[in-house]
Specification:
Layout (H helix, E strand, L loop, with lengths): L39 H19 L1 H39 L18 H30 L11 H15 L1 H20 L11 H4 L6 H37 L5 H20 L2 H26 L2 H17 L1 H5 L8 H6 L1 H17 L9 H10 L3 H4 L8 H12 L25
Helix pairs in contact: 1-2, 1-7, 2-5, 2-14, 3-4, 3-7, 3-9, 3-16, 4-5, 4-10, 5-13, 5-14, 7-8, 7-13, 7-16, 8-9
Length: 432
């Protein structure tokens, strides 16, 4: 095993990362705890977030104008970078999984995984993508069915259905999990192999040395917090829209901002309670429960739904996805199509990057696993929810409504053109 990876015993401190201890100057990034006091990163992040929230509340139109202009400029100028970087990360993970580094344990050599493989899968999936899959697992295929990507098929036709699932797999599949995996592996390796604190800034120790414990490291951590704030806000907003529409359809609950705020408050209370009870209790049990419900929904739809039709559609769409994989991965906007890419591919990739630091904090459950196992998860976890029959049930009117509301959510800036707001209703015939 190459020496630069270490043995897992030479830098791991006697106390857990982040606990009290003496400061070190060995470049590991370990630093003394401050007795639990809130530091400058917290207060700076809180101040910046408060300013942004105030801007949104008091000058909403101005915020929309600025964010739209920023979105258009960034995606038009650097959209290609999203494609290249994410594909490069994916290739790097393939190399990592099959290289000697893939056998390095994320912890001491004597450590063993704290959770079973199934529990680990459940926690990673639920903590990283859960609420997004609930919303987009239905909304994205329905939207692509009504407005096929890049005009590759006529709306509401069988070829459009295949293309809809193909691009849903692309948005929620390998590229998304590659971003999460590279963040998670870096955090897990830095924390459990090198004994550093669980901070994004600590990932830069090999480049910056002890400077990560100074102002440069604090800036990195503040940016990570701010990016996570946007990712979390988007997820909670889309999830609240989905739940609110569902409750409105089933029980007549008003679909308005008050209901959505109450839903967000309830969801926040639940995940805060699960977080304070620890990974091995609240998060583990909620993740396992969510996974069991998803499996039950999948089995239910196979039993009561057109199982043969679904199997054929799944195989065909996966085949189309595999055939066009590299074309989709590198399809830019040199000859048009920027608006669609803003709405979907660029938006999704930016969303995954914003969730990177937060998702990485969920990867302590990967302690004592090997990078090859974590990399493999990124490859077999193509969106099971978007692939499951339950995600494309006959509830098309609710799905289309939800997608339209999600597309016009303040959490998601609108591109310059608004032609896509008048999306046609879905009339694709039921398979019976």
């Amino acid at each position: 095993m190459s020496s630069h990876l270490g043995t897992g015993t030479e830098t791991t401190p006697a106390t857990p990362p982040g606990s009290s201890g003496d400061s070190t100057a060995d470049g590991t990034g370990a630093a003394p705890a401050d007795g639990g006091k809130l530091g400058s990163v917290f207060w700076t992040s809180l101040g910046v977030s408060a300013l942004f929230v105030g801007w949104a509340v008091l000058f909403t139109d101005n915020l929309n104008k600025v964010t739209n202009a920023s979105l258009n400029w960034v995606t038009a100028t650097f959209g290609w970078a999203y494609l290249v970087v994410t594909l490069a990360i994916l290739i790097f993970l393939v190399f990592l999984a099959f290289s000697p580094a893939g056998d390095v344990r994320l912890g001491k050599d004597s450590d063993r995984p704290e959770f079973s493989t199934l529990s680990w899968f459940a926690m990673i999936l639920s903590a990283v993508m859960g609420i997004g899959l609930v919303s987009y697992g239905v909304a994205e295929p329905i939207s692509h069915l009504a407005t096929p990507p890049h005009g590759l098929a006529e709306p509401n036709t069988p070829p459009a259905a295949v293309r809809a699932l193909q691009y849903s797999y692309f948005d929620w599949g390998l590229h998304a999990w590659a971003i999460f995996a590279v963040f998670g592996l870096a955090i897990a390796y830095s924390t459990y192999r090198k004994g550093r604190r669980t901070l994004v800034s600590q990932l830069f120790v090999p480049l910056l040395g002890d400077r990560v414990n100074g102002p440069i490291g604090k800036v990195i951590d503040v940016l990570a917090v701010f990016a996570t704030l946007f990712g979390t806000t988007t997820s909670l907003g889309l999830g609240a829209l989905q739940v609110n529409n569902g409750l409105g359809t089933l029980f007549g609950v008003p679909v308005n901002s008050v209901s959505q705020v109450l839903i967000i408050a309830a969801v926040t209370s639940v995940f805060t309670l699960s977080a304070v009870t620890g990974v091995s209790k609240g998060i583990k049990f909620l993740s396992q429960g969510s996974t069991l419900l998803a499996v039950a929904l999948f089995v239910f739809m196979l039993v009561v739904g057109p199982a043969v039709f679904l199997a054929n559609l799944y195989i065909e769409s996966v085949g189309q996805w595999a055939t066009d994989f590299f074309r989709m991965s590198l399809q830019g906007t040199a000859f048009g199509g920027l608006e669609w890419m803003q709405w979907w591919t660029y938006f999704m990739m930016a969303w995954w990057v914003s969730w990177g630091p937060s998702s990485a904090s969920s990867w302590p459950v990967s302690r004592a696993a090997a990078p090859s196992a974590a990399s493999s998860w990124a490859f077999w976890s193509c969106p099971a929810w978007c692939s499951s029959p339950g995600s494309r049930s006959s509830a098309a009117p609710l799905s289309t409504s939800t997608c339209s509301r999600a597309a016009t959510s303040p959490s998601r800036p609108r591109p310059t053109s608004t032609a896509r707001s008048s999306r046609p209703s879905t009339t694709f015939p039921s398979p019976g």
